[in-house]
Every structure is written in structure tokens, then in C-alpha cells.
Amino acid sequence: xxxxxxxxxxxxxxxxxxxxxxxxxxxxxxxxxxxxxxxxxxxxxxxxxxxxxxxxxxxxxxxxxxxxxxxxxxxxxxxxxxxxxxxxxxxxxxxxxxxxxxxxxxxxxxxxxxxxxxxxxxxxxxxxxxxxxxxxxxxxxxxxxxxxxxxxxxxxxxxxxxxxxxxxxxxxxxxxxxxxxxxxxxxxxxxxxxxxxxxxxxxxxxxxxxxxxxxxxxxxxxxxxxxxxxxxxxxxxxxxxxxxxxxxxxxxxxxxxxxxxxxxxxxxxxxxxxxxxxxxxxxxxxxxxxxxxxxxxxxxxxxxxxxxxxxxxxxxxxxxxxxxxxxxxxxxxxxxxxxxxxxxxxxxxxxxxxxxxxxxxxxxxxxxxxxxxxxxxxxxxxxxxxxxxxxxxxxxxxxxxxxxxxxxxxxxxxxxxxxxxxxxxxxxxxxxxxxxxxxxxxx
Length: 443
Hints:
The chain is α+β, with helices and mostly antiparallel strands. It contains 15 helices and 17 strands. The strands form four sheets. A five-stranded antiparallel sheet has the order 2-1-5-4-3, sandwiched between helices. Strands 7-6-10-9-8 form a five-stranded antiparallel sheet, with helices on both faces. Strands 12-13-11-16-17 form a five-stranded mixed sheet, with helices on both faces. It is rod-shaped, with a radius of gyration of 45 Å.
């Protein structure tokens, strides 16, 4: 008897459940009785035609007690309605596979994979179906544990204050957190998934610090590193990031993936910039302060000593400022100093250095293309610029300037000496009258 010659009248096969015919009884017994799966044949009327011993064990009955019973009778109305859609599909000729959580013979819940295959007659008509089920409880439990672990990991990624990026060895993005999408200014995950980090908006123009750090990981020169980068978003805004990168390798030492934790440090950078600015600039005028000016002056003197050339220091003191300050108050006086700062910046060349020493005293350093006549020329421009009237808080006011100049060479290239000699020359200019420039002599 072939598989298509199964009895359709609900009768059982001969004792032992083996079909007579050319098939090897031992082989058929191996395939049905000892396979470790529950096996049953159901006719089109949805009655049991054959079951193996494992199937019968689940119902705590001998195979002969199950043959001939209907599915609804065997499983009950509730369970029958659960798998009826799959039965209807297999009876239409479709091979169906699904999983169910069922009670095993010991009374515990167990996951099983159930496969339904059409049973076709000689002319291809569907006579019923064969059902086989395997216990996949351990696999399902492992898969569920993996799903929960992935869910927890994704939750941690999305709730982390750091942006998280995972890439393959070619820097193609495998996954990233919502924070990463927000930080980089990307639209969504679809925009970036499976694309190289080097090709994405923002990171396509990454600075060399980040590019070098990722290259070290990919080549195996490092397994972890840290770097900072400044990236520009599509909307033109800048974002400063601190990257903590690590590489995962296989047993052969090949890099398989790279994980990056990215922190937005834009606020910290901005605070640092502000602190640096305040430490080096006068709070009232925005010009360099004495400390920053002296540092710049020292560097210029060192360059002149090493490479030749000249540097000139102009010491500027305002004429008539005390009268304005006393007559109109400090608020007007402060505004006059701001005017002076702006006019000084416009009177000198773009690469010259301007600073406020304090009070109404200012400094200008000339360290590029300094010819003998340049300090007097710049000094005259400054005097002309400052002599123009100023409209401050409804008051028309004027100031003048007296300027002392010290140059190296011929004077010695010592900052304290040059500052003192320029100061002395400034007082000589004041004694000579408003709007004068005087040079410090070399004697």
C-alpha cells in the first residue's frame, strides 16, 4: 500500500500501525514510530486515519483509540477553532507550518512546530493531510530570551544620553539610537541604514581626527580609542562631539563591527570658548587684554629675533577723556571707550594687533612689513579717526590721542623695556601737545 492508499473509512491499519506493501516495515517503523515527532494522517472529512505512538502518547491512549475520531472531538471546540484556518489552507493544497503553545503529556506548556502537508491521490486530488509536530520549546525559549535581550539592549540604546552607532567593518551603519539620529540631524533610520558613515550627511565631511580614529580601528592598530570632532549638520549648524569607539573582532582577529558612543559636547566647547575669550579680551571693548597682548607680543619678538624684520609698539593715551568721564558720567565714558575701540580697529591694518591696557590707554602692535615710516603713518590714521566727533547718549563729544612708539630694532627686543619706552614716548607726545606721535630713542 502506497501513501495514497491509506484507508479513508476511518479504519486502522494492521496491528503495529504499519501499512502492508512493498515498503520495508522496519524503515516505515523508523520513520513513523521512532522519529521523535508526533505524526498523524487526517482525511478530508477531518477524521484521524493514522497516528504514530508518539502522537498517541500525547493523548494518553493507544493509537487504535484515536483512529476514526474527528479533530473537533479529539481537540475540543476551543482548540479546534485555533487551528482551523491552517487546516483549511492545507486542504486547499498549501503546505503550512506554524507554532503553538500546548500542554505536553506531563501537563507543562511547551512550544511545538507543526507542519501540515497535503495528502494527494493518484490524480492529484487532495484526500486529506499529514501532520507532524516537533518540540521546539528550548529553541523558542532561547529565541524569546534573545528577543528580550535585544529589546532591552535597544531600550538602553534609545534611553542612553549618548548617541549609539553600530557599524560593520566597512563602516556601514547596522543600527543606531534615536539620539544618534537627533544629534546628527538625520531624518530617520531608513535614510542611513546600510549606508557608510563616510557617505552620510554630517559625517561625509568629518574632520581628520574622527576619520583617523575609525581607520585605526578598522586596520587593527587599535581596539578602542577616543576622539573629538566638529561636524556640520545639513541645516548648517555645528555640533561638537566626543566619540568613544571600540572594535569587535572574530577568532581570527578580523574586525567584524565597530561601536561608537557619541556625546554632544557643544555646550562644553562653547563654555570653553567663552572662558578663553573672557580670559584674553577686555570685557568692555572686546579688544585683547594686557595678558593676551603680551603673549602675542612675545611671539612676534621671538619671530623677529629668529627670522629678522621689525616690530613696533604704539602706546596710545586718550586726550580729553577724563573731562568727558567727569562731566557726563561713567556710562557715557564707557560708551566712548567702545567707540574708540571700533575706530582703532578700522584705523590699523587687518593683521595688526589692538589691545586695551586699562582705563583710557590702548596698545597697537605692528609686526608685519614694518618699515621705518609705518608707525608714524598708522599713528596719524589713529589720531585722525579718534578726532572725529562722537554722538553718545545725546552728547556730542570729542577725544584726541597722544601716541608713543617703541621699535625693535633698534631697541632691544625685551617686552618690558619696549613697553616702558613706549610709555615714556607717549608722555613726551602729551607734553608736545594734543595729537602728537613721538618715538622712543635708542639712547
